[in-house]
Amino acid sequence: MIRLQNIEKVYRTDTVETLALNSISLDIAKGEFLSIMGPSGCGKSTLLNIIGLLDIPTKGEIKIDEQKTDSLSDKQLANFRNKKLGFIFQSYHLINDLKVLDNVELPLLYRESSAKERKDLASEALGKVGLSNRVKHFPTQLSGGQKQRVAIARAIVGRPEIILADEPTGNLDSTMGNEVMDILLNLNKSDGTTIVMVTHDENMAKKTHRLVRLFDGSQVQ
After folding, report:
1. Looking at the predicted structure, is the pLDDT value of residue 221 above 80?
2. Torsions phi, psi of 150, nearest 5?
3. What pTM was computed for the model?
């Protein structure tokens, strides 16, 4: 489903050159749940952003579902991301002025969907994360765990084949973290969603199919 070949990422300023990723080659199978671990600053989020087509590698090739992404225009990349990928972040990124249902609908606004289709898909996604009774609430009325579940619903509302999660349990206590992790595991098992998760939590990583470790921008496991 995802193939990275000799990925390198270099950040340059007038005086400094920083190697963020060094010769990363990685194959992620369809339906796999992969976790990425490593110390702060090792390149985990950079790698996830490159997989998510939010950043461009300095060198190397990315294929997602056999599609070479370097040949796509910015508009094609945006459409590809919207249909193929779902994103979950540590900080939720919900809009406080919008109700839960409207937050979840947001990715569908970039598709040719009717208002009814958007509402039905958002309601279905919220049902999958156990928040059908919170559709009219605002994010400020929710707990941290509930906010992250809304963020997961927003990530899956377009039925993406791949979910990319950056520290999805990082801001949560252990109970809420386990609840969120159980939702991701169920999405992987029941829907066959391919999931790539950056985490600092060894216990969460052990629940996934495979663990990749990074150190100073290089893959060490």
Report:
1. no
2. -60, -40
3. 0.91
Report the distance separating Cα 193 and Cα 161, nearest Å: 5
Give me the domain span that covers residue 202: 2-219
Assigned token pair, 108: 């569908």
Residue 22: name the closest of 58, 63, 62, 64 by CA: 58
Number of residues that make up the chain: 221
Q: What is the pLDDT of residue 90?
A: 82
> Domain total for the chain?
1
Angle at the Cα of 207 from the Cα atoms of 201 and 211, rounded to 5 degrees: 70
Cα separation, 168 vs 90, in Å, equals: 5
Structure tokens at 43: 């390149």
pLDDT tens sequence across 79-99: 888 889 999 988 889 999 999
Domain with 181 in it: what CATH number? Answer: 3.40.50.300
